[in-house]
Amino acid sequence: MCCVVFDFSDPAKNLKEKDIKRQTLHELVDYISTVTSKFNEIAMQEITRMVAANLFRTLPSMNHDNKILEMFDPEDEEPAMEPAWSHLQIVYDFLLRFVASSETDAKLAKRYIDHSFVLRLLDLFDSEDQREREYLKTILHRIYGKFMVHRPFIRKEINNIFYIFIFETQRHNGVAEMLEILGSVINGFALPLKEEHKLFLLRALIPLHKAKFVSMYHQQLSYCITQFVEKDFKLADTVVRGLLKVLAHD
User: Fold this and answer.
1) 3 neighbors 49 (Cβ within 8 angstroms)
2) pLDDT (tens digit, 9 = 90+) per residue, 90-138?
3) Quick one: which of 49, 61, 41 has its CA closest to 5?
4) CA 158/CA 175 separation, integer angstroms
5) CA dihedral 181, 185, 187, 193 (to 10 degrees)
6) Is 56 exposed, middle or buried (0-12, 13-18, 19+ CB in 10 A)?
7) For 169, which DSSP code?
8) Does position 175 have pLDDT exceeding 60, yes or no?
9) Which residues have a Cβ under 8 Å from the Cβ of 151 and sit 6 or more positions away?
10) CA 238 – CA 233 distance, rounded (Å)
11) How many other CB atoms are there within 10 angstroms of residue 77's CB atom?
12) Rounded-to-integer distance, Cα 234 and Cα 191, Å
């Protein structure tokens, strides 16, 4: 029932059906919060299918044309609110509780919360609705903590999103939220730092300072870089030189 997706662009359409689905979703959230037996494979398959049917969608396309970009200022723009939020919020709540549940076995669940699933979650970080990005941030952070096997993949894909943002589009709604996750991730890095992590600082985090709207995520970016320097004070030299290079190009 909950895999049926309704059209919310018309508030008067399917009112009864939307209400029945909303109530059913609430019942599922209550169930998943109180369940005391491990989820089996069939349940996981159906859970991820329902979540995917509701959440994974094409976001309204942003025009990345440079002329449009010059006129665009995210601090002045009114963010678009997701019309289907009354259903989406409950599905996000359901997914968060499923990932966090002690009854969800990560070894079994990784077959369904796989790389494809994680990638599609990351795509949604470009949502203009901040409520959606907040849920995504919390869920992805939980996935990172629970599914150790996915950690390198998540770091690599966030890295790729930052590259596209820095060198191609200069527009993405979720940079601050992804940096917030990374702040916690960097905090947990073991010493000595791996070369991969140092390269991430050099090639992704420092160049993020050159974006036009750096003010939108500067606080989170500063925190990430500070975490690196606190882990290894020798990186302070790398950071200062990198920032001078970025500023010189400006």
Assistant:
1) yes
2) 999 999 999 999 999 999 999 999 999 999 999 999 999 999 999 999 9
3) 49
4) 9
5) -140
6) middle
7) I
8) yes
9) 144
10) 10
11) 9
12) 13
